UniProtKB/TrEMBL annotation:
PROSITE patterns: SUMT_1, SUMT_2. Residues 267-504 form the Tetrapyrrole biosynthesis uroporphyrinogen III synthase domain. Belongs to the precorrin methyltransferase family. Its EC number is 2.1.1.107. Residues 5-217 form the Tetrapyrrole methylase domain. CDD domains: HemD (cd06578), SUMT (cd11642). Transmembrane segments: none annotated. This is Uroporphyrinogen-III C-methyltransferase. NCBIfam families: cobA_cysG_Cterm, PRK06136.1. One of its GO terms (biological process) is methylation. Signal peptide: none annotated. The gene is cobA. Keywords: Methyltransferase, Porphyrin biosynthesis, S-adenosyl-L-methionine, Transferase.
Length: 510
């Protein structure tokens, strides 16, 4: 069997977009991912489903894998012929023990690549508005470990030199030793009023910053019960924060928001949340696909073959548009065969999807529900006409009924079907249990139903109870009603029934 390969990849400090392009490629190309606590959960949720994940970090209920065991695990996996991604927080060469892992791989003749990452030592202060160097304040910086016991620390760190050699000092793994560190620095000549900042979980929703001086920082850490992991920044650059802090002023800063939409549509909402300083966590609970039931397929083919007979083609969703065109392609049908029909769209996104395909819809309702489409089509809809409604299998019955009341013959087509998609996600479960998800967005009734089903599937007996502490944000009244019927308390409601509306409502709420 050919021997595998190991990528030793830096994941960056937590924000999943801070991994390198090469790192992401390695992650997506691998068959096994070996990771620990500092690799952000969002990044892990981007790993394709078929990839095996092995957690080697600390966990209360299991023994933590020792470094030697991890080294051997990597060798074993590679000897099984696997492509392995060893994902490490920050940069793998900065207190990442990559030397030991690469060393054993080398000894065993296994190919590896080291893919650098953005180290927390620099990125975490940057996210708190602290540049580690500055033309006037610091022309060098040192990254120092604070993890060892006090005497070991003394032996490996030359405090006399470290204290005075460079401008900014950055301590990793140092929160528990903050008193000792400040004491040494003062003892060796740093002024007691030197500014100090601790930045905890930088680049993630939990980011928090505590500022003080060498003199009072220990007391402040104790009083605030400030927990690791944090980067400790010592030096005048800390003062820059007052002026330069940026992400904390964004409207959704500090909020981790669950995005439950269909896989194909999730990223738009996620990107918006991200731009507004929030941390989206994508958990697609719906997948859309072509229906394969012979009756459905037959109905679609027949309806499309009668293209010339329609006066209206009414699209009610972006998916509806996309799948309608897919069927045209599958059946080799030219869109111009619908030359008699006017196209109408419910909602601006649907209209946009049509325009992208070269069709300008002739009606666009003010409000984005099926009901108001009819209002805005008004007199142009006449008795005796025929309308095609390509839509999903869960589309509501209202529109066909109203059309029928107006004497219009309507042909509803299930051009796509939605199937539940939630996979087992331990991170999500853990975050929900610990209050790490601040809000959940629902963009349709099926997202509500499927999320609850996915949680039950993961062993949660009362999913509504688990979600009781989390804000529930719904895109419209129908979705909200479904949420309430399923025992969820809806706290955020979009006024305009669009993604924009939902995002706006979230901002106002937060
Ligand atoms: N290789 C990593 C460092 C590993 S040592 C890197 O380059 O970033 C682990 C320490 O890194 C933690 O104790 C903490 O001091 C720091 N750290 C890593 N990620 C962090 C984050 N998101 N926020 C604050 N500190 C972080």
């Amino acid at each position: 069997m050919p021997v595998g390969k190991v990528y030793l990849v830096g994941a960056g400090p937590g924000d999943p977009k801070l991994i390198t392009v090469r790192g992401l490629e390695a992650l997506q190309r691998s068959e096994v991912v070996v990771y620990d606590r500092l690799a952000g959960p969002q990044l892990l949720s981007r790993i394709p489903d078929h990839v095996e994940r092995i957690y080697v970090g600390k966990r209360p209920d299991r023994h933590t894998m020792k470094q030697e065991e991890i080294n051997h695990l990597l060798v074993d996996l590679a000897l099984q012929g696997k492509t392995v991604c060893r994902l490490k927080g920050g940069d793998p060469t900065v207190f990442g023990r990559v030397g030991e892992e690469a060393g054993l791989l080398k000894q065993n003749g296994i190919a590896y690549e080291i893919v650098p990452g953005i180290t927390s030592a620099i990125a975490v202060p940057a996210y708190a508005g602290i540049p580690v160097t500055h033309r006037e304040l610091a022309s060098s910086f040192s990254v120092v470990t604070g993890h060892e016991s006090p005497d070991k620390l003394d032996r490996s760190i030359h405090w006399d030199k470290v204290t005075n050699a460079t401008g900014t000092l950055l301590f990793l793994m140092g929160v528990a030793k903050i008193g000792y560190i400040s004491e040494q620095l003062i003892k060796h000549g740093r002024p007691p009023e030197t500014p100090v900042a601790l930045v905890r979980w930088g680049t993630r929703a939990e980011q928090a910053t505590l500022v003080g001086t060498l003199q009072d920082i220990e007391k402040k850490v104790r009083e605030a019960n400030f927990q690791p992991p944090a980067v400790i920044v010592v030096g005048d650059v800390v003062k820059q924060r007052e002026e330069l802090q940026w992400i904390e002023s964004k409207p959704l800063f500090g909020r981790r928001i669950l995005v439950t939409r269909a896989r194909s549509q999730a990223s738009e909402l996620a990107d918006r949340i991200d731009e507004l300083g929030g941390e989206p966590y994508e958990f697609p609970v719906i997948e859309t696909r072509l229906p394969d039931r012979p009756e459905t397929v037959e109905a679609i083919r027949t309806a499309i073959s009668e293209a010339e007979s329609y006066d209206w083609v009414i699209l009610t969703s972006v998916n509806g548009v996309e799948f309608f065109f897919r069927w045209l392609e599958l059946t080799g049908t030219d869109i111009r065969r619908f030359h008699r029909a006017e196209f109408a769209a419910v909602g601006p996104k649907t209209a946009e999807a049509l325009r992208k395909r070269g069709i300008v819809p002739s009606a666009l309702p003010e409000r984005f529900r099926a009901e108001s489409l009819l209002d805005s089509l008004g007199e142009r809809v006449k008795a005796g006409q025929k309308a095609l409604l390509p839509r999903g299998d869960l589309a509501r019955e209202l529109l066909p009924r109203e059309l029928e009341a107006l004497g219009v013959e309507s042909v509803s087509l299930d051009v796509y079907e939605t199937v539940p998609a939630g996979r087992k996600d331990e991170f999500l479960l853990e975050m929900l249990q610990e209050g790490g998800i601040h809000a959940i967005t629902f963009t349709s009734s099926s997202t509500v139903i499927n999320l609850l089903a996915a949680l039950r599937e993961m062993g949660v007996e009362e999913p509504a109870e688990l979600l009781a502490g989390t804000k529930i944000a719904c895109i419209g009244p129908v979705t909200a009603k479904t949420a309430e019927e399923n025992g969820l308390a809806v706290t955020v409601r979009a006024e305009s029934y669009t993604l924009d509306g939902l995002v706006q409502a979230l901002i106002e709420y937060c």
